[in-house]
Fold this sequence. Notes:
The complex is a heterodimer of chains A (310) and B (461). Chain A has 310 residues and is mostly helical.
Amino acid sequence: MKATKEKSKKAWRIMRVAIxxxxxxxxxxxxxxxxxxxxxxKGNSSTNVMIVQTKLKYWGYYTGAIxxxxxxxxxxxxxxxxxxxxLTADGVVGSKxxxxxxVSLSASSYPxxxxxxxxxxxxxxxxxxxxxWGYYTGAxxxVYGAKTRAAVIxxxxxxxxxxxxxxxxxxEKALGINLxxxxxxxxxxxxxxxxxxxLLAKAIYAExxxxxxxxxxxxxxxxxNRVKSPKFPNTISGVIYQPGAxxxxxDGQINLTPNQTAINAAKDAMNGWDPTNGCLYYYxxxxxxxxxxxxxxxxxxxxxxxxxxx
Amino acid sequence: xxxxxxxxxxxxxxxxxxxxxxxxxxxxxxxxVSVLALWLTSVSIDRKNARRTLENIYQKAxxxxxxxxxxxxxxxxxxxxxxxxxxxxxxxTDIWRTTSTIESNLASLPIDHYAVNNTTKFINQLGDYxxxxxxxxxxxxxxxxxxxxxxxxxxxxCRAVNEGIQKLTQSISQxxxxxxxxxxxxxxxxxNVLGSELDTxxxxxxDYPKMIYDGPFSDAxxxxxxxxxxELEEISPDEGRAYIKKCFExxxxxxxxxxxxxxxxxxxYLCGLKNGYSRYIQLTKKxxxxxxxxxxxxxxxxxxxxxxxxxxxxxxxxxxxDAELEGVWISASDSVAYINLAPIVNDIVYYPDLIxxxxxxxxxxxxGWEANSYMLNHVDRQLPEPQINEEDARTKVSKKIQIxxxxxxxxxxxxxTEVLCYEVNxxxxxxxxxxxxxxxxxxxxNILKVINTGNQGxxxx
Lengths: 310, 461
């Protein structure tokens, strides 16, 4: 009996230690995430920060400059705003705070500046009224820089428009201007869709995520070269899912989520970058088991991969 | 006594407790075993179902492929004796459609891709060739003796391939399970009937001359002729290094990686930049011109406008290859802009000489450069005089299109030839279309649609 009691005591002690450890880990985990750089859940891009600053300034919580830098003043303003609105005052702009602020932040960066196209004429047409009404203080130079974006954001806040820093139809209307659509054009641009781009990025990530950037572009280019070659299927999915063609497809790594590097490499390949200059095959000499692949003449090596035309 | 009774009682209590524990353990064990058994049966049922489904998919792919082959052989023989335009076009379209079915089903069978690469090439070229002569038929042109001969050779090959496949079909039909042989060597005729038979067809049956014709799978595309480099002198790797150092001020180290072979000999360099990033640079051995620069950025900030990035791209073209080029297309996503540059001479855009430049919208740095088309195609050209004028071109496009602008442009075709066209830019239902009207014949050569994908920039289809 005594022994069992002793045992259960021991078990309790271990449990207690474990609980303390767990709590410690949780606390520690929590502190690390809050001390890391996630001030804005959707990303600390300067545009996101500018949008938050402008809105807080408009309501009087923030008195600093609209500079796109999330400093101590901005954090204090966010905290102040959160406690006023009955939110957890942690200084982090999450989805609730975003909603309370009435802004729409973007998880990715902001590639679009003017929906109808960022031509010099269009940018000037936007800068002119903004300057006239005092939102913009820079030169009317047709360049959509940080100052112009700040002015657009501020204009959106003051006019109760969706705050995203992009000159879309509503901003155009409120500014009283009429911009012209994109005019430049060309032939010879890839005819692949975005779905294909993502699938290609997945294949690149699965097959070559440890390779140098250009090696990743090269793997994407080989897949696209196969699509163009009569010897292989004629679609990107057909090439990637051809049985036995890629080991990372056979063993399921193709289902991993690609990182930004693989996505960038896929975009390069889609836009015509081909470091292999038309190769249809590649292999890793250290791991390749197929006798057949060794019979090919290698034209180029990038990272661990040897590339061959076939 | 009393002490002993007490012990007895304690002992009895203990044994009862032990018995209880034993019963509990046995019960738990029985439950665990039955749960495990149930789970295992369901797993094995799942596995069997999945395997059967997979087998069915493979069998369907095989029979679609074999049936298609039979169909193509028959229709090809009919096409060779067909006389009327309607019949010819009908048969050619059917063959072209069926070859695409054959190709995609053949590619989904679980055998090594190099056991079907020649067969796939044959199927693709067959469809492509039939499609190309069908265009002539539609235009009312008769076939040349050479084309008749090609057709006869393709038919011979088609018959031979089909013979092999129909023989294989007999084995497959007699209960051969494709899934039983996944993982066995393709070439082993004892363990993998499907793979080894297809491999034999792939290696021995197909035999026909190179096919040069107007189609994307034409053999003409295999031999690349870099016209722009033809007259230029070869350089040494060291001269290449000096050129790179001269062009890029912010490069800290230039590592020569070696020479790449193939159609085009290039020198490969990996360069370190002051900001810690690197650029992979390929220079042509002939002429020492940059044919490709590859680089990445992790930044997502945007500090410069798209129009400014076009100016940066043009400056690089001037600096790197001393060419006056104009921006003809831009697509920006995240903080990267891809800018297409082309020569515009006498208001004619030369699209075959396209150079693609990748510029960072964060700091305006040159991230990439792709000049393969330029090196292949850029020469002094004698262009034909347009046979129709701009006003004619406007009438050649659909009335639905609201025309915005028209200009002359030389465009490349899939198979390496160039056509002088009017580039008609217009709108329909708020969508932007670009239509190329042949400046000699007045025919529509191509229709592109501008797709505004927002985040991914503007792509052309």
